[in-house]
Design a protein that fits this description.
- The structure is a homodimer of 318-residue chains.
- With 318 residues, chain A is of the alpha/beta class.
- Chain A folds into two domains: 130 residues, Nucleotidyltransferase, domain 5, CATH 3.30.420.40; 172 residues, ATPase, nucleotide binding domain (Nucleotidyltransferase, domain 5, 2-Layer Sandwich).
- The first copy, chain A, has twelve helices and 13 strands.
- Chain A has a five-stranded mixed beta sheet. In chain A, strands 11-10-9-12-13 form a five-stranded mixed beta sheet, sandwiched between helices. A three-stranded antiparallel beta sheet of chain A has the order 5-6-7.
- In chain A, strand 6 and strand 7 form a beta hairpin.
- Chain A is globular, with a radius of gyration of 21 Å.
- The mean pLDDT of chain A is 94.
- At the A-B interface, strand 10, helix 9 and helix 11 of A face strand 10, helix 8 and helix 10 of B.
Chain lengths: 318, 318
């Protein structure tokens, strides 16, 4: 039997788990709740027990598992597998690799969840094995992962890949949680898109978004994309602005990194082809012509499974 | 005796050569003219003869030379050592690695000259061994090299590191040779700085630059830096604009790549501390606060020798 890998993706609410073979075929996946009580003390033993139970249920010998890969949020020492700080989970200077190996006695490898989502798409998703890949996730925030020469780029303190904090609005940008202004995240995340639309409401006398706002007291990015689909002028303007800032940030990254493929994932990417096409248009304006011509931009295909695929890849390659 | 490396940096006018030991100590360096006649046919044998003569003169056995590293301009297949096109030299689909190995019978490795200048600074210059390094060269154009995790980032078609073509002027940027507008090169190269100053002449009623322009019919970047030193308002404005665009491009690259050090080289960097300090000020505005705090920005220290040091490093590591 082929060696197996366990891929784990730890989020603030649930832990996603999977068993994947070394060729990338998923055998099974499941979830357990993330127990964030007492500073996340129970998470490692919860994962260990859950994996052991699953192996028994599937009659898989522990020896057939080559390794466990884990994606975690926050600021990580990848070499040592230490989470410096993961606010949503409660960990601080948590030796995740050591603790997991002690609990389950299988070699464990840890990386940032956004990086592993990028790797997952590279290995089994929209990246199609590309060795040079940018992955950007448009969700509540904007996350990113960079693969160059087949390796995850971590940077000097593990902070590389912060595509969401590329300054895209050069003048009078909105303040960002990171402490600076005009970050891509402020105009291309679900939150940012809703904010842009809300700010522009007063400039458009008739917009379906005004009606929705009057009714709900708020707007969501889905409201904006739905209205843009119906050619609402305000919504079309907002989607166009987001696409422009994304095309600018990604075009400039491509000028520096010359990726084969750029994968766009996350909830916002479900807005579909019109967003991607609009991003491409601006990308072509800001990227070196040869790079604009050669770089493929496509939506992510693995959805929420990208993280566990990437985690399994990590266990395979380390 | 320690193994030796030959570092070669091929430019449009001269070929720089050096013998460097595996610890990075330079034994000797010299130059020969680049013979661009007949499509650059003679360059390889010129280099081979010159290296062999030098080894004899220094009584070094050929066996002590571990390898030859060569930096060349243009678009390169690094794996195969093929120069697709180097306009200044005349090569087209030139199998540099194979030809050199045939001519001198020493293993040869080839990379882009800007990448190797970055590696040179990493190994023996301002990079001080940093494994995560950005290098930007402000000369007639703006070149760049990116090192991540100790490796040169080449990208999918060997075009990575084109820092000079990051779009920095988002509206009404000047046209660039690359085919798009507003590239960093149009505002931060020697040519770009001279152009910015010339365009602004009419807006300043009294500037020493106007006198120089009247006298010479043209301005150079040196004129601008000299006048800025004397607090000429126009010159100070131009240097400030250049620094802003550099700080913007480098800050955003640092957000994505989290380098330890950014090295600024080339003729323009000789303008000194005032330029670097001004770049840092804008860098701090556009980089994530933690990255702004941790990233070191300094001027290159190897000057024209960066390329041969980098080439020797390549021969050592391949």
């Amino acid at each position: 039997m082929d060696k197996l890998l366990v891929g784990v993706d730890i989020g603030g609410t649930t832990v996603k788990l999977s068993i994947i073979d070394i060729h990338g075929v998923m055998k099974t996946k499941w979830e357990i709740p993330t127990n964030t009580s007492e500073g996340g003390t129970f998470i490692v033993s919860d994962i260990a027990h859950s994996v052991e139970d699953k192996l028994i249920a599937l009659q898989i010998e522990k020896d057939s598992v080559q390794g466990i890969g884990i994606g975690a949020p926050g600021f990580i020492d990848v070499g040592k597998g230490i989470i410096f700080e993961a606010v949503n989970i409660g960990w601080k200077n948590f030796h995740l690799k050591d603790e997991m190996e002690k609990a389950i006695n299988i070699p464990t490898f840890v990386d940032n969840d956004a990086n592993l989502a990028a790797v997952g798409e590279m290995w089994q998703g929209a990246g199609h094995g590309a060795k040079n890949l940018l992955c950007v996730t448009l969700g509540t925030g904007v996350g990113g992962g960079i693969i160059a020469g087949g390796e995850i780029i971590h940077g000097e303190s593990g902070m590389a890949g912060e595509i969401g904090h590329i300054t895209s609005v050069t003048e009078n940008g909105a303040p960002c949680n990171c402490g600076k202004k005009g970050c891509l995240e402020t105009v291309a995340s679900a939150t940012g898109i809703a904010r842009l639309a809300t700010e522009l409401l007063s400039e458009y006398s008739s917009s379906t978004l005004q009606e929705i706002y009057n009714q709900n007291g708020t707007l969501t990015s889905k409201d904006v994309f739905d209205a843009a689909q119906e050619k609402d002028a305000l919504a079309v303007n907002v989607v166009n602005q987001s696409a422009k800032y994304l095309g600018f940030a990604l075009g400039n990254l491509a000028n520096a990194l010359n990726p084969e493929t750029i994968v766009i994932g996350g909830g916002v990417s479900k807005a579909g082809d019109s967003l991607i096409n609009s991003i491409k248009e601006y990308f072509n304006k800001y990227a070196i012509p040869k790079i604009a011509k050669e770089t493929v931009i496509r939506t992510a295909t693995l959805g929420n499974d990208a993280g566990v695929y990437g985690a399994a890849w990590l266990a395979k390659h380390k």
